[in-house]
Specification:
alpha+beta; 2 domains; elongated
């Protein structure tokens, strides 16, 4: 069961698409304006997928300063830069075998978006 409220043709179509995407192992790009439910759709896909028992990691890329986004995503080793007082795993590793939801990815520097 896809936990969406409503029974319109559009909501039923969305339910079917979310089920379909959950069965897929490929990356999924969810587009839409702020507040339309992209995060909710990502969580539903995760819960319906084979990855449901692994972490769901949500990252608001727009809330992380551009100078820190690479370190936050990929992690860093102690001493890699001023202030790196210990090793830190990144969000990508935290989501290992689960789902990494990058919200507001358009706010990331273009050179990081290609990774």
């Amino acid at each position: 069961m896809v936990p969406l409220i409503g029974n319109s043709a559009c909501i039923n179509e969305l339910r079917n698409k979310l089920k379909k995407y959950a069965r897929c192992d490929a990356e999924v790009l969810i587009q839409g304006e702020t507040g339309v439910g992209k995060g909710m759709c990502a969580r539903i896909i995760h819960k319906l997928s084979n990855r449901h028992s692994f972490p769901f990691v949500e990252v608001n890329c727009g809330a992380i300063p551009s100078g820190l986004i690479a370190s936050e995503l990929f992690g860093h080793e102690k001493g890699a830069f001023t202030g790196a007082i210990s090793d830190r795993i990144g969000f990508i590793q935290k989501a290992n075998r689960g789902t990494l939801f990058l919200d507001e990815i358009g706010d990331m520097p273009p050179e990081l978006q290609i990774h």
